[in-house]
Amino acid sequence: MSDDVAVPAQRGAEHEVAIRELRNAGKVIAELAAAGAVGKVTSGGRLVGWLVPATPAEQRIEELTAQGLVHPAERPGGLAGRGPRPRRAHLPPLSETLEQMRNDERA
Q1: 78 Cβ neighbours under 8 A, 6+ residues apart
Q2: What's the chain's average pLDDT?
């Protein structure tokens, strides 16, 4: 594992924040977010975490969720662990349908 940490280029300047400064975390986080800056959290001079502002996409998802236009997934993890649906016996396999469509286009 590499010790290098990639900070996304679209984020603002990086600021170091000591854990003791997080006693008033709301103020520190608000200042970083307002500046679009990345906070490098340290303890005893050692990196222990990052505070990063939300991306525009993350902000938009929050807005849409608040408006009730999108809803969180019922099952986290997306399609992981799901198998294919059973084939419908009354329909031809998709591969045959696709082949027929391609043949029709060529004709």
Answers
A1: none
A2: 79
- Sheet bearing 46-51, strands edge to edge: 14-18, 38-43, 46-51
Alpha helices in the chain (DSSP H): 25-35, 56-66, 94-106
Buried b (16+ CB within 10 A) or exposed e, 4-33: eeeeeeeeeeeeebeeeebeeeeebeeebe
Q: Please answer whether residues 41 and 17 qualify as being in contact, where contact means their C-beta atoms are separated by less than 8 angstroms.
A: yes
- As a whole number of angstroms, the distance between CA 37 and CA 51 comes to 9
Cα dihedral 58, 59, 60, 64 sign: positive
Tokens of 50: 């990052």
Mean pLDDT for 70-83 is 76
Burial class (CB in 10 A: 0-12, 13-18, 19+), 1: exposed
- Give residue 7's identity as a one-letter amino acid code: V
